[in-house]
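Service request form, structural biology core

Requester: graduate student, group of Dr. S.
Request type: structure prediction, single chain
Budget code: on file
Notes: please return the result as structure tokens.

Sequence provided:
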Amino acid sequence: MDLDQILNFITNISFLSVLKIFLLIFLLFYICFAWVILRQEKFMAQVIEVPISSILTVLVNIHFWASIGLFIFGLFVL
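Core staff response, request fulfilled:
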């Protein structure tokens, strides 16, 4: 690629494409956040036994898989 092609590529980048890339990066960070919550809940369930822990485990797992699903959905839609 020569300099004209590189400059043409840079000038053709739109605001919406940059926004889409940042949104996908944000969703990746959100998956990492959901994974941290999943790990913390597993550690907490080992230390503290409460009657609601099984419900909390299910909700945390749903949250983690929903964040992965949201990222995959964003890949196809965006």
